[in-house]
Amino acid sequence: MRHRMVGKVNFSHVALLILFLGIVDVIVIVAFWNTPVNVSNNDQASHYPSMATDEEGRIHVVWADDSINYPLNSEILYRSSSDGGATWGSGAALNLSASAKPSSRPVIAMADSNQRIITWIDGGDTVARIWGGSDWLPVVQLSATTTPTIQIAAAINEDGIALVAWNEGYGSVMGYDQAMIPDTRGFYRRWNGATWSESQPIAARLVTMRGSLAYIATDRATLLRSTNAGQSWGAPIPLPGDYQAPLDMKLDSSGTLHLAWSTANGVMFGRYDGRSFQRAVMIDSWAQPGLASANSAIRSVSVQGGELNTVLYCENRQNPAYYAYGRATTPS
User: Fold this and answer.
1) Residue 330, pLDDT score
2) Can you give the pLDDT at residue 319?
3) How far apart (Å, rounded) are the C-alpha atoms in residues 229 and 215?
4) Rounded to an integer, what distance in angstroms lies between the CA atom of residue 122 and that of residue 108?
5) SS3 sequence, 150-218?
6) How far is CA 291 from the centre of its chain?
7) Residue at 11 is within a domain
8) How far apart (Å, rounded) are the C-alpha atoms in residues 188 and 294?
9) Cα–Cα distance, 136 to 303 (Å, whole number)
10) Does residue 332 fall inside a structural domain?
11) Which residues of the chain are modeled with pLDDT < 70?
12) Labelling 159: which of 106, 112, 179, 183 has CA 20 to 30 A away?
């Protein structure tokens, strides 16, 4: 099955249908977006896109791509758009990994145009690159174990402080006795603007930061909150019953945390303002409701001002499967 990565650009009119489902206690919002735009634009598979929007409104996207050195390798490619996703440059996408190992699952985070970080899995290790002001700094290896990295997240604030969190493990491996499979373990490291801290054990699946406020989403359906840019973390905050473990989350300018996840029926969204959680909201439904597929999932979300404005997701429509991003304004 061939994969394309495409983008859905800004729309001028959004029709919203709000249905109150008392049984599941969620609000459903159906948003109508316009024609997709091909971002990767090649004949090979494009995987695991990640997106960030800077304070000037430019959209930055990275993904793992099989068009270079495939099938022996895959690379991390980058494009940006300064017109809301209508165009993505006429030249070739920038290759950020250029590695002899397979590169996968990239994540981009940024605070403004000069504070950016991209992290990905290189072979089985966690690596990262930070924007140096005029070019990307050299790749830094953050983990080096015999247990492969299986999940990764990153955040950076306006002062250039960065956090990278990842999980190491094998998950469910056919043919292995359960006792032979190492437990999944979580870690994170902090960049203070000059050096990286040592790895700290923490059950982290996602991390986001804005100013001195930071959140970690754990594998235990909880959030951890930091008010000193990740130097220390408070007590676990349990997620509500109508929430699931987020697949991405971002902080807005008011300090509200936006969380997004996927169900068998569509794209879900929630918010946490530091005191209470908003009731779960369905932003968009899958074209084939009830299709529980690993190919239908949230990949990345972006916020501007005080609202979630962009959702990047992969939806399985049988043939072809494709990635898309679209703008969706959430309710206040």
Assistant:
1) 46
2) 33
3) 9
4) 15
5) EEEEEEECCCCCEEEEEEECCCCCCCCCHHHCCCCEEEEEEECCCCECCCEECCEEEEEEECCEEEEEE
6) 22
7) yes
8) 26
9) 24
10) no
11) 1-37, 69-72, 146, 170-183, 284-332
12) 106
First to last CA, the chain: 40
Domains in the chain: how many in total?
Answer: 1
In angstroms, rounded to a whole number, what is the distance separating the alpha carbons of residues 26 and 134?
45
Cα separation, 57 vs 194, whole angstroms:
27
Question: Domain holding 30: CATH number?
Answer: 2.120.10.10
- Give 112's contacts (C-beta < 8 A, 6+ positions apart): 54, 55, 56, 158
Q: Is 151 exposed, middle or buried (0-12, 13-18, 19+ CB in 10 A)?
A: buried
Decide if 326 contacts 276 (C-beta within 8 A): no
Q: Which domain holds residue 69?
A: 3-327
Q: What is the pLDDT of residue 9?
A: 39
Which helix or strand (DSSP H or E) is residue 222 part of? Answer: strand 222-226
Q: What is the DSSP letter of 15?
A: -
| Run of H or E residues at 238 | strand 237-238
- Separation between Cα atoms, residue 328 and residue 332, nearest integer Å: 13
Q: Which two tokens stand for residue 295?
A: 């190919």
Tell me if 218 sits within 8 A of 207, measured CB to CB.
Answer: no
Is residue 20 in a domain?
yes
Predicted structure pTM score: 0.75
Is 315 among the domain residues? yes
For residue 6, the model assigns a pLDDT of: 46
Candidates 66, 67, 97, 91; CA nearest to 79 is 91
Task: Copy the structure tokens of residue 125.
Answer: 């290790």
Task: Answer positive or negative: Cα dihedral of 157, 108, 187, 215.
Answer: positive
d(CA 173, CA 204): 22
